[in-house]
Specification:
seven-stranded mixed β-sheet, two-stranded antiparallel ribbon, 9 strands, globular
């Protein structure tokens, strides 16, 4: 698991960005601040609001030289389908990384082995590729909280 102060290893993943699917290498992101938002899965009740809000702030962060990207264990095609079917996710302009093997989630320590999903987490990475901040949440507790709010 990556810790604060450690450098992110090299990785390359498929990414969905506003109707396009392409590959991005982490090294392509060096030189900018990076906010990585990990979430469990597409088509869930809490994730659309998180991604919608991040997308609303995306322009402000871009102006500060910061890239915001999301990441889940879903495929880029699932991201694309979710983007076209969800009103909230349809507004998302930020890149959505796809990690179906869980390789990158394992690297960051967010992977839930028994479920094949990621914990909710946010990592802030400096332009040199070092983790400067991380926040991680138990997925179950977030689901229970959201169920209590919506029922």
């Amino acid at each position: 698991m990556l810790k604060v102060g450690e450098s992110i290893p090299k990785f390359e993943l498929d990414v969905f960005v506003v109707d396009n699917i392409k590959k991005i290498k982490f090294s392509d992101l060096r030189g900018k601040w990076l906010i990585l938002i990990f979430y469990p899965a597409d088509f869930t009740c809490v994730c659309p609001t998180e991604l919608e809000q991040a997308s609303e702030l995306y322009g402000d962060f871009k102006n500060l030289g910061t890239e915001i990207m999301s990441l889940s264990t879903d495929t880029a095609y699932s991201h694309k389908a979710w983007h076209s079917m969800s009103k909230a996710v349809g507004k998302v302009k930020l890149s959505m990384f796809s990690d179906p093997s869980g390789k990158v989630c394992r690297m960051f320590g967010t992977y839930i082995e028994d479920e094949g999903l990621s914990l909710r987490a946010t990592f802030i990475v400096n332009p040199d590729g070092k983790v400067m901040s991380l926040e991680m949440h138990d997925t179950l507790n977030i689901i229970i909280i959201s169920e209590n709010i919506f029922h």
